[in-house]
Amino acid sequence: MILTDNINILRESCPQSWEKIKNIENNLDLNMVHVEPAKKEGQTLFINQGNKRVYMHSKYDPLKEAGTIVDGYKDVKDGSSVIFYGTGLGYHIEIFLKKHPNVNYYIVESVPEILYTYLSEKSLKELPIKRLKGIILGIDEQKIVSFLNNIIDKTRKDTIIVELPIHKSVFPKEYERFLDIFKRAIKNKKSELHTEFSFQKRWILNSMKNFKYIVSTPNILMEKKGHFKGKPAILVSAGPSLDDEIENLKYIKEKGLAYIFSVGSAINTLIYNDIYPHAACTYDPTVNNQKVFAKVKEQNISDIPIIFGSSVGYETLIDYPGEKYHMITSQDTVSNYYLKTEDESKMNIVFDAPTIAVVTLQLLYQLGFDPIILVGQNLAYKGKKRHSEGIEYSKDISKEEIEKGIWVKSVDGSEVLTNEGFNRMRKQMEYYISIFTGLKVINTTKGGANIEGTGFKELRDIIGDYLVDEVFDENWLNGTKVIYDKEYLKAQADKMDKSHSEALKIIREYREVIEKIFNLVKNQNFSQSENMYSKLDNIRFKMNDNDFFKTFILPMNRVNYKVLIDGIESMKSERAPLMKGLRIISTFKNFVEVCNNDIKLIDPVYKEMNEDILSFIEG
After folding, report:
1. Which of 120, 165, 264, 560 sits 20 to 30 Å CA-CA off 257?
2. CA–CA distances in Å: residue 251 to residues 281, 302, 393, 589
3. pLDDT digit string (tens) for 23-75?
4. pLDDT tens digits along 537-596
5. For position 69, what pLDDT does the model report?
């Protein structure tokens, strides 16, 4: 039976894990795990595996063995995050934490019976309990993913996995699964941070610069939601297999058998082959996104409507010759603050994704299209090609890219070479397909990566099976109107102007407090400097409540702000008062200056946006 002290600790520190253990307690095979005295000192633990006993510790001296395990971990820094994988009776955990008491630690056990036995035999009170950040029963993959994401999110120093060596030998599948999830979580977090760091300022600047287009064009998600129920849509991507389907797409367009949406660079291949899609979709926030539509602008093609994400690179929309329709993206805090529909219905948005194809999949699903047919969605290389013909800025893949490539299952069951970026896109697409219940998605991409949740069928066969009747209505976008509430917009703009003035005061206040702390620390007046730290927190709370910061400045610095928030706990736990003061001064000062620079950066854009708002209200 689990020790009472441990139950209380689990209830308080790890309530979800405690509920999980309680729920499976009656189904445990406790005959599988046995504890017996070790020959020299302490106890040892063995499990029955088939007809033999497998010891998780030395039968003779488990404490000495655990010390040897711990000695293998050198240069462990204070503040590091340590994941103990495999508990046994926890000797290695106890010795490690005595040697390195200032780390934050997590305990992972993939075998329920072993975790139960550990908690029944050893008191967690013997460990530095304030630094215990979580205990998880590693049997549910989704829980492990969330658990590891949380660790990686909060860790600004090293993350170390301390293994019980025999555990991974006895339960290799469980260990490999955990390690695979851990590696994926690290990769995904790096990619996410890279994306946020690269685009955090552009998302907001674009949303501000695009605001005049947003208020003056139809919101296609709000005005056409569910309007195309049961109509087939073709989502055309720029994978190299698009070249194989040109004649089929021409036939479909000519006969009006489906609605054709191009995503990203596919617009250029289609134009190159004299096919105009019914709409081109775009959301990329970078300055380079304008290159995708350079051909449309150069040739002044006015009969391809563009459906743009509200945080798209603002250069894309300048002088675009066709009609414009917008969809609000999850990264656009600007529109989400200023806009409300006249009928006060909930604002529909699309969530940011690593590829426009996934964003457009969300769009088409909300508009009611079914089935959705994927064309040119390779998400993999084809020979040395990454894109279809007609894309002048596309480059063949390099030898280095081939060497770094990864093999994944293809649509025909064989393997195809891809890269990490394409693979993330595929997994994101698979996620949305899995939650869009009732939606049929057909993949026609010859030689492409297999996308779970889709069936593969050649486009020529789909024409005979699914695309038989003319469904396209040339007036499909008619009847739309701007539906944003002007009175609400005016009220929000006035409110924001006040917040803008307050934001400047907050910056001044921050600087004054930081300067006072600096002088106190310089004079080694640590008791008074300690009292001042709470003032920094109070100003930070004001910042969090200020609309100008919430809408513009904090989203522009989401990575830096996250680092600040995650570092506050470790800064406050710093024991050396001089080091603590210097860290706090440096961290907060740097963040405040970055925010101040961004206020200056967006000031002219903010004024321009206010003029656009006034023009819209008076127009």
Report:
1. 264
2. 21, 22, 28, 62
3. 888 888 888 889 999 998 889 999 988 888 999 999 999 999 999 999 989 88
4. 899 899 999 999 999 999 988 878 877 777 776 676 677 888 888 888 888 888 899 999
5. 92
Tens of pLDDT, residues 349-408: 999 888 899 999 999 999 999 999 999 999 888 866 555 656 555 556 777 777 778 888
Q: Which helix (H) or strand (E) segment is 486 a member of?
A: helix 486-522
Angle at the Cα of 76 (from 72 to 82), degrees rounded to 5?
90
Contact 91, 43 (CB under 8 A): no
Cβ contact 10:135 at 8 Å? yes
Contact present, 82 and 95 (Cβ < 8 Å):
no
Enter the tokens of residue 322: 């066709």
What does the pLDDT look like over 275-289, one tens digit per residue?
999 999 999 998 889
Percent pLDDT > 90 in the chain is 55
Query: What pLDDT is recorded for position 480?
Result: 64
CA-closest candidate to residue 421, choices 322, 354, 334, 519? 354
The bridge status of strand 132-137 relative to strand 104-109 is parallel
CA-nearest of 122, 117, 114, 115 to 97 is 122
Amino acid occupying residue 23: N
3-state secondary structure 159-174: EEEEECHHHHHHCHHH
Non-local CB neighbours of 31 within 8 Å, separated by 6+ positions: 48
End-to-end CA distance of the chain: 74
Task: Kindly list the distances between the CA atom of residue 249 and the CA atoms of 259, 273, 371, 425, in Å, as whole numbers in the listed order.
Answer: 11, 10, 16, 24
Angle at 437 between CA 436 and CA 438, to 5 degrees: 115
User: Could you tell me if 58 and 44 are in contact, meaning their C-beta atoms sit under 8 angstroms apart?
Assistant: yes
* Residue 220 CA neighbour count, 13 Å, CB half: 27
The Cα–Cα gap between 83 and 133 comes to 10
Task: Provide the residue ranges of all domains of the chain, joining segments of one domain with +.
Answer: 4-190, 210-465, 486-618
The sign of the CA dihedral 522, 525, 528, 530 is positive
Q: Which residues contact 50 (CB under 8 A, 6 or more apart)?
A: none
Closest CA to 377 of 404, 391, 363, 356: 356
Contacts of 35 (CB under 8 A, 6+ apart): 43, 44, 45, 89, 117, 121
Q: Output the six-digit token pair for 201.
A: 């300022």
Measure the CA–CA gap between 22 and 168, rounded to whole angstroms.
25
**Count of Cβ atoms closer than 10 Å to residue 141 Cβ:** 12
Question: Mean pLDDT: which of 128-142, 463-477, 526-540 is highest?
Answer: 463-477
Q: What phi and psi values does residue 15 have, to the nearest 5 degrees?
A: -60, -35
Asked if residue 196 has pLDDT above 60, the reply is no
- Picking from 600, 612, 490, the residue whose alpha carbon sits closest to that of residue 211 is 612
Q: For residue 539, give every residue at least 6 positions away whose Cβ sits within 8 Å of its Cβ, in sequence order, or none.
A: 506, 509, 510, 513
Spatial distance between the Cα atoms of 369 and 227, rounded to a whole number of angstroms: 8
For the record, the structure tokens of 410 come out as 């293809």
- Give CA–CA dist 37/98, Å, rounded: 23
